[in-house]
Amino acid sequence: MSVVSSFLTVWRHPERLIGMAPAQQDLMLRMARCSGLLATLDARLQQSGTLDQLAPRIQDLLEGVRIYAANQERAVRWEVNRIQRAFFGTGLPVILLKGAAYHLRNLPWSRGRLTSDVDLLLPEESLPAAEACLKQHGWVAAITDPYDQRYYRQWMHELPPLHHPLRQTELDLHHAIVPRTSRLCFDARLLLERLQPVPGHPGVWTLCPEDMMLHAVVHLCHDGDFQRMAWRDLLDIDAFFQEFSSDADFGTRLMARAEALGLRPSLELAARLLTRVVGTPLPAGLAGQIRQHAGGICESCMVHLLVPRHPDGQGVDPGTLLAQELLYIRSHWLRMPLWLLLPHLTRKWVRNWSSDVWPRRSL
Amino acid sequence: MRICDLTLVQASARLAGDGLYWGVGPFIVRLKSRLPDFNHTFYRLYAHHRLLEPDFGGVSDFHIDLHPSRGMRRFWHPQVFFALDGPTGLAPFPLDHAVPLFEWGFNYAIARRANQYLLLHAAVVARGDRAMVLPALPGSGKSTLCAALVARGWRLLSDEFAAIRPATGLIHPIPRPIALKNASIAIIRAFHPEAIIGPTFPKTRKGNVAHMQPPAASVQAEEEPARPVWVVSPKYQPDLKRPVLDPMSQDHGFMRLAGHSFNYELLGARGFATATALARACRCFELGFADLEAAVALLDGLAAADAGAA
Fold first, then answer.
1. Confidence of residue B274 (pLDDT cuts 50, 70, 90)
2. Which of A110, A150, A197, B247 lies deepest, with the highest CB count within 10 Å?
3. Which residues neighbour A30 within 8 Å (Cβ) at sequence distance 6 or greater?
């Protein structure tokens, strides 16, 4: 059995970890850790009631990551509370995206999910008021470089990140889920029409389940940092499908929604990746509608990279490097037209090469 | 088996190959490095640490790889990187500073992962199973005092971490080399000429740094936790003729401990409960000192008196 299929087995059936040889267990734990999934695996082991059958040293190691994840979740919940306090009386809505939304909705796979920053969605016209309000309440700009500031404000789907110096937290204010300049850009007001309140948290909203899932799909398919985050995005989507698998209409609604937002190709790509890499059966109502084709170069690159890396770097072949480069170019290609892209990449390249550790030897 | 049971050549071969498996306190490390200078110093400083065979039948807590720059940077001002299960965000060091990078990176690795312990930023030494916690302010002389106590027979638990199990309140040893900075290097060489001290690395982020090998007895007792008995907050005061040991309330002791912690906040309520229990179990003091020999004698006296009272 290959390393990856072993890992997927453990992912699906955490109790199988118990019977493995120590060296194999070590590898599985490391792979989970490298993809930011160790605390999630720990939560799954707890759910399966098999945690105490593992060697004490493994339980010890998992306890460390469990406490770490619990603190992150606590911090996210507290941050949402602080945002509510800052927005109180201003009429600004608190709409959570991604990890914070999963946590506050208590979605099952949010247990142990590492979430380091909070992402908010706001109507575009409310952004200036929201930013000013947050700055009054202690948040500051996390990046001060004027070029980066301008880049975010002019072209991105979010403002430059905010940082809270006392709590050491990061906050992103989005007005859309894809960049303005992207070829996939759609009117974000469509998302605002279908918000759902979070039970138990008056005044806090999230996207509807279909939109939450499509956001994860967009993140998976179009983020440049494919190797680092994509595997977790894919398993998020996998978890969505499992969660809503009992809902017979979910697949149909999802496809209709993707169609309406112009995200059908992305959803199809994500569904194919899920089938090819994880082997997840697709929900009824979706399976029949996914156009099955061999997939282009990009899709092959993605499959190649989605396979979790061996932590010792084995398997980093020229093909992987090439695939990384191609996807990096693709993510930028989708993000903005060439006349914007070339000056931007040139600037980033010059900046990366001009900085150097050596002249600052006594750091 | 101890690392010194291998020859340098054997140890280097493991480091350069699939990795050297070794243990320190509760942790197992797999370390890879092809840097001959680093391997040589590591072999000296960690000579007494326990050696594991690659098929020891367990999982490792840390897989660390020290590797030099790749590509053109191999030739132009080469650097060394600290990888922990893959790349970390740690800035590389110049290639000849692999030892300080390893020590610093290993601290980072423990502080980031070992949240099953409350990790205070403090040196810990012990007489038998009675531990003295020395919380640190930068420049307070914590490491120097710790090295001096260890040189005079105290057991070293750690120069950097007081690792406390919330369930038991016991402090678990992580005995590693003591990092001596700047003037302390010469002071400890003079104070304890038999000390094994590695090369001095100039101009690191903390100035000049050299590492003192922990005593074999401290390393061999690495699985014996100690109970906290004293909190002594040291402060080096060059004008002081005699060392002064002032009692400090347990409240202040608590603030000293919690205020210098790697993960006190991360542990939430558990961190608070553990730190208060620690302060309540201890007699707390502030120690002003200039002369090391006199300071050690004073703390020896404290330990002897408390042993007599108990």
1. very high
2. A110
3. A311, B63, B85
Q: ipTM of this predicted complex?
A: 0.90
Q: Topology of A75-207 in CATH?
A: Beta Polymerase; domain 2 (3.30.460)
Answer yes or no: do A361 and B203 touch at CB < 8 A: yes
Tell me the residue type at A301: C
Q: Which residues of A touch B181 (CB under 8 A)?
A: none
Write out the DSSP string of A169-214. EEEEEES-SS-TTSTT---THHHHTT-EEPTTSTTEEE--HHHHHH
- For A192-201, A235-244, B35-44, B196-205, which range has the lowest pLDDT when averaged over its residues? A235-244
Domain residue spans of chain A:
1-54, 75-207, 209-350
CA angle, A250 then A256 then A258, to 5°: 100
Domain extents in chain B: 3-113, 118-309
Average pLDDT (A226-234) is 73
> What whole-number distance in Å separates Cα of residue A273 and Cα of residue A282?
11
What are the pLDDT digits (tens) for B250-271? 999 999 888 889 999 999 999 9
Contact B94 A64 (CB under 8 A): no
- Smallest Cα distance from B93 to chain A, Å: 8
Q: Which residues pair with B132 in a beta bridge?
A: B125, B230
Q: Are A290 and A280 in contact (CB under 8 A)?
A: no
CA nearest A110: which of A178, A157, A47? A47
